[in-house]
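User: Quick sanity check before I run a bigger batch. Here is a single chain. Can you write out its predicted 3D structure?
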Amino acid sequence: MGKGMNKNTSVGVVKLIRGIGPKMDWNTKRNGQLVAAILALKNADEAKIFLRDLMTEKEINEFANRLQAASLLSKDVQYNTIIEDTGLSSATIARIAKWLKGSLGGYRLVLSRLSKSSPHHTPSKLGKGLLLNS
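Assistant: Done. Predicted structure follows.
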């Protein structure tokens, strides 16, 4: 098996990872170190202090708003409402919508996992007929 892989690694996920971003080289030492650093975090407190050291407050808020936009899009919330709620541009929201429905599924993966860990979950639509179910 490849480095960092185990018997629980899905073949489909492996194929997707190899195809992530044709311009993105995930095999550089720096990018690998970033991914390894994220995976090394053990809890929310560690994640908070790492993200705060890594990014500015503005960048953290931007990424939080993008995730919120993906969540709202998965619930068929209108762009105007998302713009008002997040302050993101319609172009950014459109790009998030494209990625949400795209073949890589990073947003879908995270939203699905977040919904499973939420005690007050209600199913959400995720484009291409996909539903989040707990």
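The chain has seven helices and two strands.

User: Great, the batch can go ahead then.
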